[in-house]
Amino acid sequence: MELVIRGGRVIDPESGLDKEVNIGIENGKIAKICESDIEGKETINADNMIVSPGFIDIHMHEDPVAKLKEEAENSSAIFESLVRMGVTSAFGGNCGYSRFPLKPFFQDLESKGIPLHYGSFSGYNTLREFVGVVDPYASIDEEQKISLHDNIRQELETGAVGLSIGFEYSPGISTREAIEAVKVAAEYKGKLISIHFRADGHQAEESIEEMVEISRETGAAVQVSHIGSCAGFPGVMDKALQIIDEARAEDIDIMGDCYPYHSFCTAIGTAVFDGGCFQRWGINYSSIYIAEGEYRGEYCTKELFEKLREESPETMVIGFSMDEEEIQKAIKHPLIMISSDGSFSLDQGHPRGAGAFPRVLGRFVREERKISLMEALAKMTIVPARRLGLKNKGRISKGKDADLVLFDLETIIDGADFNTPTRKPEGIKTVILKGVPAVRNENIVNYKAGRVIRLKDR
Ligand SMILES: [Zn+2]
Question: How far apart are the CA of 319 and the centre of ligand 1, in A?
Fold first, then answer.
């Protein structure tokens, strides 16, 4: 064998395996799993470690400004932070915004190399702006719609994993317009539709009902994006989860994801902060923390809020609006998987991009015992793998991709906070991408072990 992982407690949520076994890896695949010794050219000792399938982050965002390194041209704070927390496959292009067109972007990533496996949704809001609908409140005309639909087909043929729609960022997108676009995407079997809600707080229920309607009318699989930031309010989450449960009982293919924090992060100039948001969330200006730029580290006042919206609308801010207990309800729910929703702007932003996965394992599994280890790992591996149609990832069984993470359950914890949002976690020792160690002793040792994930039609 080329590589052997010896002595770890191997957990595979697909089969329920939870046992001390050795793993032999050859040609990037898991070739052998057994209790007896395996001979290998190289052996990694996993004593006292959990060996899990590498985590799959179904919802992240590309950094607006990539931190370029000579040895890793396509690296960026988010890619590095994700792989250091055990994510082996990440999916961007969410909330309606992606690179366009994806083909040259994918080719560039492939020719220069990336620190983890990466795939992308095609962002509907991006495509809409590209055909000339620049005002987020405007509707689309027939001619624009025809060329937009052609672009959807082009991007899905290129290998986008699906279409993402950001209703809140472009309120001009009507339900009808979205259904027409999703029908185009649904021509490509197996494509997932990820949707950022139209409105949050007490309007979250209507937003999720809209997503149910889109799935019902098109037959497409719909992913409710970051349900915590949409419905993480007392009295709202229970109803939101109930709507999803009831839709599933009617055979509507809807699930969701959640990041384990009770604060959200977005640009201050977006439509998220248009009139009425503070009443909806029950907070005021002082709950908005400025995450980058000249006023970094300060909380807003009315004056500062208005000034930044006017003068630097791209500034990332963090809103402390949600409720932790409500977030935990989502994290525990069987139809909700774990995501990071992370991205950084010149190393600044929300700590979720460097802490989401170890935070669930350290806080919710070990310290607070809110959820079992097997359940939490399933939500980070096999559940998102199935959701995205990844047949060879998210599992530890013979013939599957050798994407693995080795961590210490006694010490794993997130290190990132609002002051140091990219600080690395503790306890995640080794990360392996297709049989190649990318992280050793908690440090990145290979910035180019990742591959672009393009989904072929199933
Ligand atoms: Zn979003």
Answer: 14
Q: Which domains does the chain have, with CATH numbers?
A: 1-53+394-412+425-446 (2.30.40.10), 55-262+323-391 (3.20.20.140), 264-321 (no CATH)
CA-CA distance, 256 to 63, in Å (whole number)? 23
Structure token digits, residue 165: 């729609």
Question: Cα separation of 83 and 60, whole Å?
Answer: 12
pLDDT, tens digit, for every residue of 409-426? 999 999 999 989 999 999
Burial of 152-186, coded b for 16+ CB within 10 Å and e otherwise, reads bebbbebbbbbbbbbbbbbebbeeebbbbbbbbbb
**What's the 171 CA to ligand 1 centre distance in angstroms?**
14
Terminal Cα-to-Cα distance of the chain (whole angstroms): 32
Report the relative pairing of strands 348-349 and 344-345 from DSSP bridges.
Answer: antiparallel
Kindly give the distance from the C-alpha atom of residue 226 to the centroid of ligand 1, in angstroms, as a whole number. 7
What is the distance in A from the centroid of ligand 1 to the CA of 10?
34
Average pLDDT of the chain to the nearest whole number: 94
CB 160 within 8 A of CB 190: no
Note if the bond before 101 is cis, omega within 30 degrees: yes
Q: By the 8 A CB rule, do 102 and 155 touch?
A: yes
Residues with CB under 5 A from ligand 1 (ion): 95, 196, 225
229 CA from centroid of ligand 1 (Å) = 8
pLDDT tens-digit readout, 129-176? 999 999 999 999 999 999 999 999 999 999 999 999 999 999 999 999
Q: How far is the CA of 39 from the centre of ligand 1 (A)?
A: 47
> Rounded distance, CA 389 to CA 384, Å?
8
Q: 3-12 and 17-26: which strand pairing? A: antiparallel
Give me the residue label for tokens 């719609």.
145
pLDDT for the residue numbered 72: 64
Rg over CA atoms, the chain: 21
Look up the pTM and report it: 0.95
